[in-house]
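1st attempt posting a full record on here, be nice pls
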Amino acid sequence: MIVNDDTGEVVEEEGTLCEDCQHFHPDNERRHPRYWMCLKQRRLPGFPHLTRQKWHNWDPYNYCERVNVGICAMYEEKVDEQK
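the predicted structure (as tokens):
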């Protein structure tokens, strides 16, 4: 159950499921959920804010598990044709 901090009312029972979002990367179906990517969260090249030198070859998008923590602000439900 997810509760709105300001009002105390239940916002949504299931939260926002990445697999139902239109920003769900098409390659995710072949991956373990831990490595699903969000098309709305493009990753900066390399690993920013630590060093200017690229030290890891990350996927081009951030992982859903780090973006969606229950209620994703960028969530947009897929239209029926996309599901």
